[in-house]
Amino acid sequence: MSRIVDARGLNCPQPVIMTKKAMDEGDNELVTIVDQTAALENVSRLAKSQGYEIEVEEKGGDYHINMVRPASTVKMEADLQENVAILITSRFFGQGDEELGKILMRSFLYSLSEMHGRITDIIFMNSGVFLTTEGSEVLDILIGLAEEGAEVLSCGTCLDFYGLKDKLAVGSVTNMYTATEILASASRSITL
Length: 192
Prior knowledge:
This protein has 192 residues and is an alpha/beta fold. The chain has 2 domains: 3-68, Translation Initiation Factor IF3 (2-Layer Sandwich), CATH 3.30.110; 78-191, DsrEFH-like (Hypothetical Protein Ychn, Chain: A, 3-Layer(aba) Sandwich), CATH 3.40.1260. It contains 6 helices and 9 strands; from the N terminus they run E-H-E-H-E-E-E-H-E-H-E-H-E-H-E. The strands form 2 sheets. A 5-stranded parallel sheet has the order 8-7-6-5-9. Strand 1, helix 1 and strand 2 form a beta-alpha-beta unit.
């Protein structure tokens, strides 16, 4: 019998995160129910990347994403032990509207927090250091990531430039050399 993940009414990344949790719990047969095409596409993409075969049924305006992982598909344990480093150079995600950028940054960091221990380093440069200091709207998420084992590092030169050195609320201060060394030695790195 397939496990049901009811993600109707939820915005991304919630349907993806809920489905990923079910996958991580070892469920090889899942049905995720969503009511948005973006969620349908994102959950389907996740399922394919995890080795699941998918079939989508539309029922009453909802999408039922039936996922089955064949017995021959083996999840690579090496993925769970990779050294993943993230470089964040702005307090906003992307360019454009600042309010949207704040929303997207919170969503991105929340998504990272749901990866439970897979992120080893998060480095904040330039205006990204505003995210690690007092008054940041994402401190709760960054503290959670640090508690999960991620090293949260803020550029000392950047903190000085913005007058924030005494307001650092999570993680520790780093320098450009150390940040570069971490990024160069990471198995994978992401830059924002």
